[in-house]
Design brief:
The complex is a heterohexamer, with three copies of chain A and three copies of chain B.
Chain A: E1 2-8, H1 13-22, E2 28-36, E3 43-46, E4 49-52, E5 56-65, H2 70-81, E6 90-95, E7 98-101, E8 107-108
Antiparallel strand pairs in A: 1-5, 1-6, 2-5, 3-4, 7-8
Helix pairs in contact in A: 1-2
Chain B: H1 5-19, H2 21-30, H3 38-65, E1 68-69, E2 73-74, H4 95-113, H5 123-146, H6 150-153, H7 162-180, H8 196-215, H9 223-250, H10 255-269, H11 278-301, H12 310-328, H13 331-334, H14 344-375, H15 382-387, H16 389-394
The complex binds adenosine-5'-diphosphate (3 copies).
C-alpha cells in the first residue's frame, strides 16, 4: 500500500475532495498545515519587530491506497488541485507496510 | 432651557452604547471572512471609527447640523465645534452632547459600509474613500433627515437612522461591491468563515448598543425612550425568529441566520422606534427577517459578492423600516399617524425620503468608488489578496 | 407621580446591562462545552432571548404582573401590553420601562436553564420547552415574589431575583439533566472545554450586567441603588477568592474556579442586594463560593451530568442567598431586619419563599421535560450527538 | 445637598463602564502573550479585580479618602466603609457611590500593573504583591491627587487619573519588569501573540469603559461630562491615527499599532478631560500616539522585556497627559488655565504631581518587588515557565 | 523502525494514551486532524448555500517504535480505541529508516 | 528521496528555519502538534477532576529531500534545534518513493 500525501491550496480542497469521491476515494485524513515551496516569503511586522512569515496555509490530505491505484490517485489530485500558479503544492508517495481497521481488526497489506 | 440631568445621563450612556457598535460591526464581519482577513476586517472598523471621529468634530458635524443651505447641507458655522456649547441651549441637554451622540452614528455607518469591499480593499484607498464618503454622502443625508434639510421639512420620519444609517450604508456597500468586483474564486472556492462565535459576540454588542441607538434617540429619559427600548428588543426577537424559521424551512437553522434576523429586525425598527408600539414591532421585525433573508438569497443567486450582506440586511431592512414607519406610525405613541391610520401623506414622505437616500447613496458611492479605483486603485493586487489582508495590509496574523 | 428622569435613565441603562447577560450566559456556557457544540450552546441563549422576548410582551408580563389571581398568577389584563403606559403611573418611571426591565430577567433565566440539556438537546424540542417553561414556571414565580403573589404577601424578600431567577433556573436545569440523561460517554471520555477565554469573557459580561440586575432593581437612582451596586461587586469578589482558595487547597486554582466563584457570589447577593451592607456581602459572597464549590464536587461525585453547573452555582447559590437575606437583612440599610437582628419571621418567610420556588420549579420542570421527552423527544439521536449539535442542529461549524 | 438623580444615574452607569475595563485589560494583554499563558494572563486581571475590590472596601477607601494625615494618606475613619453613607452628603450623590466609582479605578490600575510580570509571575506571589502595592502605592497616590493630599493642595490637576492610574501603573510595571527579569528566550525566540482579535476586543471594551472613566469623573450629568466624553473619543481617534501612520512610515500599519495608539490617546487625555476642548484633544491624542510609539521602540532597542508596554503606553502616555494638562488647560472649559494661557504655576504643579507619582511608584514598586523576590520569589521556576502559566499556575489549557 | 500512525476518535484518546503508558510506550506525537472513512457525509449549510461537511474530527497519534514492538503497539491501540461503531479509525504502519534524538544526536535504526 | 520529519520546540522554529534557508532548504511543510518523549507529565485539573496533560506543544517540520542531502539536513536541524534540555525533540527519516509538483506534474524520485 502507499500513503499519498498531498499538500494543496486550501481553496482547492472542496474541489479535490469532490474529484476523489467521483473516483471512489472516500477515505482520507486531512490536516491544516503551513508550507513554503520555492517562492520567497513575505515579511511580517509585530510591534516594531519584523519577522518573515513566508509560511502560507495549506491543506494536507493523507490517503492510503492500494499500490495499483496510486497512479490514478496522483492523477486525480494533480488534476483537481492545479491552478497553474505558484503554490499549487506537492504530492509525496510513501510506502506503507500494512493498514489496520480498528473497528474490525482487519489488516490490509 | 434648563438642563435635565436625567436626560443628560441617558444620552451620555446611550452614546457609550452606540460607540460600542462600531467595533461590534467589526467583530460581526470579522468572524465571517476567511481566517487570512480576520484581523484586517476588524481593523477596518477601528479605522472607520478613528477617521470619522476626527472628521466629525472638525467638519462633519457642521455640515450635518450647521444652519441649513438650501435644504441640502449645513454650513460651516460649527467648524471645529465652534459654538457647540456645554450648557443646555434650546434643549434639555448640552449641544456638545448631541454632537457626540451623532458622531457615533456616523462612525458605525462607515463601519457597515466596509462590508462591500471585504477581503479585497487596499487600506490606503479605504482611508481616502472613507473620508470622502462620510463627508459627501453621510453628512448631507444626516442633514436631510435631522439637520433641518428637505426630508425633515417634507415630513419624512426617521426616528433613529433607518435612512441615514442603514439605507445609506447598505446601498453604498452594494455600489462598492459592484465597483471593486468579486473576490478571486468567489463562487468556485469554498470560503469558510473565520470564527462564527466572534460574529455572535459582535451581534451581542450590536443588540446591546442598539438600545442606546434607538432609545437614546428620544433625547430624553421618558416614556418615548422606554417605548423605543421595548420595540427595539421586540423587533430584534421577531426578526431572529422569522429568519430562523424561514431558513429552517429550507434546511437547517444556522445560528448565523438567527443573528442576521435579529440585526434585520433591529435595522427595520430603527426609523419607527419612536412611532409604533410593541405589537406592531413584532410585525415589522418579522417581516424584516423574511425580506432580508429573501434579499440575501436573491443576492446569492445573482452571484453578487456583497457577502457580508450589508445590502441585504441594512439596505433592504432599512428600506422596509422606512416604509413601515410611514405605514404603521400610531398617533397614540407619539402623535404621528401613518397609512393605516389614514395618513397617506406620511407614507409618501417616508417613501420619498427613503428612495432619495437610496439613490443618492448608491449613485454617489458608485462615482467615488469608481474614481478611486481608476486612480489609486481600490483593490489589492491578486497576490496580496491571495496571502490575505492581515499579512499584506497589516503585516500581522490573527 | 411625576416621572423622575434620573431614575428613568438608570432603569433604561440597567435594562441594557441586563440584556447583555443573556448572550453573556451563552458565551459562558459556550466556552465550556466541547468544540462540536460550541456554536449551538451560544445559539441557545439567543433563541431563549428571542422566544422569551416575544412571549413576555404578548402574555408573560400580564401573567407575572397583571392583577393577582389567588396569590398564584396575574390575570390577562395586560395581554399584548394593553394598558402598560408610557407615563409615570404610580411610580417615578414609565410602567412600560418596568415591563422591559422585567423582560430581560425572564430571558436570562431561560438562558441559564439551558445548562441542564447542554450538548444533547434537540433544538425544536427546546423551543417548545422554553415557551412552556417560561409561561408556567417563570411567570408564576415572578408573580409570587414581585407581582403581588403569596410570597410577597407573606413577606418574603427577594431584591433582584434570587428565587425567581436563580433558584428557579438552577433547579430546573437539574430536573432537565435528570430527564434528558447523561451525555454519551460522560464519565468515560474526556470532554475538553471548547474555549475557556470565551467563558472568561462571558463572565466579564455577566459581572458587568449584574450591576444593572441588582442596582437597577432599586428602580431608582439613589442610595439603595448605590448600596446594591457596592454589595454586588463585593460579593462577587469574595466568592471568586473563596472558590479560588478552596480549589487551591485541593489542587491548582483554575481560572474557571475563580469565575465560577464570582458568579456564585453574584447569585447569592442578588436577593440580598437591597438589604445588607458591604461587610455582610463579604460573608455572603465567600460562603456562596464555598457552598457552590462543594455542591459542584458533590454533583461530580454523584455522577450527575449537569456539567455547566447551573444547579450548583445558581440553584444552590440562590438558595443560600435567599436564606442569607433572611438572616442578615439589616434595618439600617433599607428598614428590613433579619434573623440576626432578631426577626425570626423574616427568615421563615424567606425560607418558605425559597423552598416553594425550589419545589415548584423542580417539580414542574420534571413534568414538562418528561412530557416532551415521551412525545417528541427532548434529545437528539446518538448520531447527531456524536457529530455535535453545531452540525446536526444548525448545519454550521464554529 | 439634595441628591441629583441624573448625576447619580450617570455615576452608577459610569461605575459599571469602568468595572468592565479591568477584565478588558485582561483580554487586551491575554491576546498578546503566548498561547501557553493566555488564560493565566486574563486570570490575573480577575484576580486583581477580586483582591482590590475587597481591599478597597475594607481599608483602601479609607486610606485614600479618609481625613488627611500630613498630606500623605487618609486615616482609618472609613475602615470597613464605616460612615460612608447612602444619602447625598455634601455632594449631589451618595458617598457610597463615590466609593465604588473610585474602587473600579483601583482595580483597573492593578490590572495594568500585571503587564510587567507577564508570562513569568508566580500566582501566589502576585497576590501578595497586589495587596501590598494597592495599599502602599495606589492608596497614597489617590489620596495625593483626589483625597485632599499634598498634590491637590498644591493645585495639581488630574481630572480622571492620569497620574494616579496611568503613571503609577506604567512605572510600576517597568519596575516589576526590571526586578523579575526577562522571559526565558526573550530576544532569541519568536514569541507569537496568542490571539490578536482578543486584544482588539479588549480595546473595544477599554474604549467603551473609558467614557465612564473620564466622563463619569465629572461626577455630574452636565456639560463638563459631555466635554470629557467628547475629548476622550477625540484623543483616542487621534492617537490611533498617529500611531498607525507613524508605524506605516516604518513598515506596515499593524492593527495592534492602531489600538495601542488609541489607548495612548485615551491615557493622555485622562488627566485633561475636564479642562480642554476637542481641538486640543486632537493634539494631545496625536502627540501621545507618537510619544508612546517612540517609547515602545526605545524599549525594544534597549532589550527591556516590558513587552505588554504598560510603561510605554500608560507610563509615558500618562506623563505626557499630565504635562499636557498643565500646558493646555483652557479657562473657557472649566475655569482652569494652563501654560498656554500664561499660567506657569499650573504647569509646575502638574509636573510636580506627575514626577512625584512617577518616582514614588517606581521606587516603592522596586522595593516591594525586590523584597518579594528575595523571600518567596516573584517568578515561577524555569520549568513552569516552559510549560506555561496556564498549566503550571492554573492547571488549565485555553 | 516503524512509524505507527493511528487515527482514532478524539474521545478515546485519553484511554489509548493510558493503555500505551501501561505497556511502556511513552513517546508520541499527536495532532488534530479531520477524517472520513467509508461512511457517507452529513450536509452543512451556510447562509443559504449547502456544503457537505463529512469530515469529522479525529486524533492522529504518531509513534515510532522498534520493529519488534510494532505488533504489540498495534494491538494495544486497536484494543483501546475500539468502540465497535463506525468511525473507530485506522492504523497505518510505515517504515522508518532511522530516528535521531536531537538533544544527544543519538541515532537509532 | 526521503521525508525528514523533525519534531522540535516551537521557540526554536524560527532559528531552524533560518538555518535551513542558509543551506538551501526552502521547501517545507509545518504543522502544530503536541508531543511527549521520555519525560513524565504534568497534571492538569478541570473543575475538580484531575487529568494529566503531559502533551506539550511542538512544531513538526516535514521536508522531502534527495537521498544524498538527507544527512546534511539532519545535521542542520539537529544543530539549530538543540538547546541541550529535555524536550529538544526527534527526527525521523522515512523513505519516499516519488514526489510530484502539482503545478507542472513534474515527478522526482
Ligand atoms: N521539499 C519539500 N518538503 C516538504 N514540503 C514541501 C516541499 N516543497 C514544497 N512543499 C510543500 O508544498 C507546498 C507547495 O509548494 P510550492 O513550492 O508552493 O509549489 P510550487 O512549486 O508549485 O510553487 C508548500 O507550501 C509546502 O507545504
Ligand atoms: N484510506 C484512508 N486513507 C487515509 N485515512 C483514512 C483512510 N480511511 C480511513 N481513514 C482515516 O480513518 C478514520 C476512520 O475511518 P473510518 O472509515 O471511519 O473507520 P471505520 O472503517 O471503522 O468506520 C477516518 O476518519 C480517516 O481519518
Ligand atoms: N517514539 C516517539 N514517537 C513519536 N514521536 C516521538 C517519540 N519520542 C518522542 N517523540 C516526539 O519528540 C518530542 C520530543 O521528545 P523528547 O523525549 O521530549 O526529547 P528528549 O528525548 O530530548 O527529551 C516529543 O514531544 C514527541 O513529539
Amino acid at each position: 500500500m502507499k500513503l499519498v500525501k498531498a499538500i494543496i491550496k486550501p481553496e482547492r480542497f472542496e474541489f479535490v475532495k469532490k474529484a476523489l469521491e467521483e473516483k471512489g476515494f472516500t477515505g482520507m485524513t486531512v490536516s491544516e498545515v503551513k508550507g513554503r515551496g520555492e517562492q520567497k516569503g513575505i515579511s511580517l511586522q509585530y510591534r516594531g519587530k519584523t519577522m518573515s512569515v513566508d509560511m502560507l496555509p495549506k491543506v494536507q490530505i493523507d490517503i492510503v491506497t492500494r499500490d495499483d491505484r496510486t497512479d490514478e490517485l496522483v492523477t486525480v489530485i494533480t488534476g483537481a488541485a492545479r491552478t497553474g500558479k505558484i503554490g499549487d503544492g506537492k504530492i509525496f508517495v510513501i510506502p506503507v507496510e500494512r493498514a489496520i481497521r480498528i473497528r474490525t481488526g482487519e489488516v490490509e497489506t | 432651557m434648563v438642563l435635565d440631568t436625567g436626560a443628560t445621563a441617558w444620552i451620555l450612556a446611550s452614546t457609550a452604547l452606540v460607540a460600542l457598535m462600531t467595533p461590534g460591526v467589526g467583530f460581526f464581519y470579522g468572524g465571517l471572512v476567511r481566517k487570512k482577513n480576520y484581523l484586517a476586517t476588524i481593523a477596518l472598523a477601528f479605522v472607520a471609527f478613528a477617521l470619522v471621529s476626527i472628521q466629525w468634530v472638525v467638519v462633519g458635524y457642521s455640515l450635518a447640523f450647521g444652519p441649513d443651505i438650501g435644504g441640502f447641507i449645513g454650513n460651516l458655522d460649527f467648524l471645529g465645534l465652534n459654538g457647540v456649547g456645554m450648557d443646555a441651549g434650546e434643549g434639555t441637554y448640552p449641544p456638545l452632547l448631541f454632537m457626540i451622540f451623532q458622531l457615533v452614528f456616523a462612525t458605525v455607518t462607515m463601519a457597515i459600509v466596509t462590508s462591500g469591499v471585504a477581503e479585497r480593499v487596499k487600506l490606503s484607498s479605504f482611508i481616502i474613500f472613507a473620508l470622502i464618503w462620510t463627508t459627501i454622502v453621510y453628512d448631507p443625508l444626516a442633514h436631510w433627515a435631522w439637520g433641518g434639510g428637505w426630508a425633515s421639512q417634507f415630513g419624512s420620519l426617521d426616528f433613529a437612522g433607518g435612512t441615514v444609517v442603514h439605507i445609506s450604508s447598505g446601498f453604498a456597500a452594494l455600489a462598492l461591491a459592484i465597483v471593486v468586483g468579486k473576490r478571486t474564486g468567489f463562487g468556485e472556492h469554498l470560503m469558510e468563515p473565520a470564527n462564527i462565535p466572534m460574529t455572535l459576540l459582535g451581534t451581542a454588542l450590536l443588540w446591546f448598543g442598539w438600545f442606546g441607538f434607538n432609545s437614546g434617540s428620544a433625547l430624553a429619559a421618558n416614556g418615548i425612550a422606554a417605548n423605543a427600548f421595548v420595540v427595539t428588543n421586540t423587533a430584534a426577537a421577531a426578526g431572529a425568529l422569522a429568519w430562523m424559521f424561514a431558513s429552517w424551512y429550507h434546511g437547517k437553522p444556522a445560528s448565523l441566520g438567527l443573528v442576521s434576523g435579529a440585526i434585520a429586525g433591529l435595522v427595520a425598527i430603527t426609523p419607527a422606534a419612536g412611532y409604533v408600539g410593541a405589537m406592531t414591532a413584532i410585525i415589522i421585525g418579522a417581516v424584516a427577517g423574511l425580506i432580508c433573508y429573501g434579499a440575501m438569497l436573491w443576492r446569492i443567486r445573482r452571484g453578487l459578492d456583497e457577502s457580508l450582506d450589508a445590502w441585504a440586511v441594512h439596505g433592504m431592512g432599512g428600506l422596509w423600516g422606512a416604509l413601515a414607519t410611514g405605514i404603521f406610525a400610531a398617533a397614540a405613541v407619539n402623535g404621528y399617524s401613518g397609512l393605516i391610520e389614514g395618513n397617506v401623506q406620511q407614507f409618501i414622505a417616508n417613501a420619498a425620503g427613503a428612495f432619495a437616500a437610496l439613490v443618492y447613496s448608491f449613485g454617489v458611492t458608485l462615482i467615488i468608488a469608481f474614481a478611486i479605483d481608476r486612480t489609486i486603485g481600490l483593490r489589492v493586487s491578486e497576490e496580496e489578496e491571495y496571502v490575505g489582508l492581515d499579512i499584506s495590509q497589516h503585516g500581522e496574523r490573527a
